[in-house]
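Input.
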Amino acid sequence: MQKYKYVILGAGPSGLAFANRLLDSHETDFLVIEKADTPGGLCRSKEVDGAPLDIGGGHFLDVKRRKVLDFLFRFMPKEEWNIYERDSRIAIGDDIINSPIEANIWQLPIVEQVKYLKTIAIAGCNLGTAMPEKFVEWIYWKLGNRIADEYMIPYNKKIFGSDLDSLGTYWLNKLPNVSFDETLMSCLERKAYGSQPAHAQFYYPKRYGYGELWNRMAVKLDKHIIYNQQVHAIDINERVINDNIKAEYIINTIPWMEFKTIHGATSSILSAINSLKYSSVVIHYHTEDMKSNAQWIYYPDEALAHHRVLVRSNFCPDSRGYWTETNLDRYREDEAGNGFCYVNTYAYPLNTVDKPAKMMSLLSELKKRSVYGLGRWGEWQHYNSDVVVELAINLADRLVNKNLTQ
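Output.
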């Protein structure tokens, strides 16, 4: 039986950040276990057609979290990154306008602008009607019929599946208010009003894919990380992994259903894990160049299988072509072509109605046993990489400080 103070399951951004933060505290009694042969998780990169392609889809480093940037730039200095102004767009019928849609309706033909404005004016949130509890009704209440019908409903179906009312509304508060006054002003003055979307600015490596950052973080771990090791069993009472590795603390960053056997699991733990849902995404590379300055473009048209296109030549230097993201259930080889493709089985954790209560119960019960969930999959939240790095730093600091004061 191998014994460690900390065993970290998964070498994605959260696992790598947690492990490197332990090293910052001069803690070396730990092991990272990764089932793939390379680190990075959803943020891995692969060279395709002579340039990096991010096989987990579009992942970039947001500029807002100073603490995270200071930490990550130690592994890949700031001089090795380009900074970009976000240029994301939405294909609405025959038109392609800037995102977010509510701030850029003015880019549509005037007849279409009027149609959108009329429905925004009578959206439930602007009339003061009670907020609905179901996902679909909430979208209409928040955004108005036109934005819902032309963009939000079909787009979300393409990403998450047709049963949208299985999703909760608790995670939608981050959507900006669609103010009739601001939308009208933007149409009259022909410029965007309202808040900026996420990743209004972002960093991307000058010479590499995003995966290079996580490769360098893994190198720093040296003998503390092992690859090609599938975690199939866990004993949450004894904190034993695969019957041969024992830990004082287990930090889990992998999807909970990856454990085929969970010894010591209560009925509430099993119920919580069995309730978790996710969607899978296919990344497909196309060699032809797109004539667009956008970095990514959203496609709500349900006649198209893919929901998003990323134009890598607009943020990844010396590259060409673009790649599509498609929900695995919608993927059609006849549309995709013959280029490189990669299936991300675990792409998006779904925000189902009962998820908050289930995850609170799960994480609370496991924490009592010194088993912690961390990151997108450990916490079952659609976190970006900068967010999970911050969470990992904070958790590592708390546990190390806890041990120092005992």
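The radius of gyration is 22 Å.
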